[in-house]
Design brief:
- The chain is of the alpha+beta class.
- The protein has 3 helices and 6 strands.
- The protein has one domain: Roll (Nuclear Transport Factor 2, Chain: A).
- A 6-stranded mixed beta sheet has the order 2-1-6-5-4-3, with helices on one face.
- It is globular.
- The chain starts with a helix and ends in a 6-residue tail after the last strand.
């Protein structure tokens, strides 16, 4: 009986971890492919964004449009994850977005919100990397 309970708990934990890992891979691929629509599915209803020409709180649809415009002006060739972290109901990622106009540092922070099936991004920053200036 005890082994059955432990096995059930382990399977539940691994299933949740696997689902979160799949979400992260899909999100990272969306950055690689400059897919603002796919990225915005991870946005909270309101999101704080900092981009080279926009800094404010935006609705999900406004943020999607601003991000799509950024991708149109900066053709993406690669996205590399530098660091991720996860604690209870929150997570963060820092990465480099390589574009035709240079390298940008991408940072986003997500958290689990009530009634959501996945963590949602509430803060996104895309800033010119110091590596671009070398």
């Amino acid at each position: 009986m005890r082994h059955t309970i432990l096995l059930t708990i382990a399977i539940t934990f691994l299933s949740a971890l696997s689902a979160f890992s799949q979400d992260k891979v899909q999100l990272f691929d969306a950055f690689k492919n400059a897919d603002a629509n796919a990225i915005s599915t991870y946005f909270n209803d309101n999101i704080e964004m900092t981009l080279p020409n926009a800094q404010n709180f935006f609705t999900k649809s406004q943020a999607r449009g601003i991000l799509a415009d950024f991708f149109k002006k900066n053709q993406v060739s690669d996205f590399t994850v530098l660091h991720t972290g996860n604690k209870e109901n929150s997570a963060f990622t820092i990465g480099n977005l390589k574009t035709a106009n240079g390298i940008y540092r991408v940072s986003f922070f997500a958290r689990k919100v009530p009634n959501a099936t996945k963590k949602q991004i509430y803060l996104l920053r895309i800033e010119k990397s110091l590596e671009s200036e070398k």
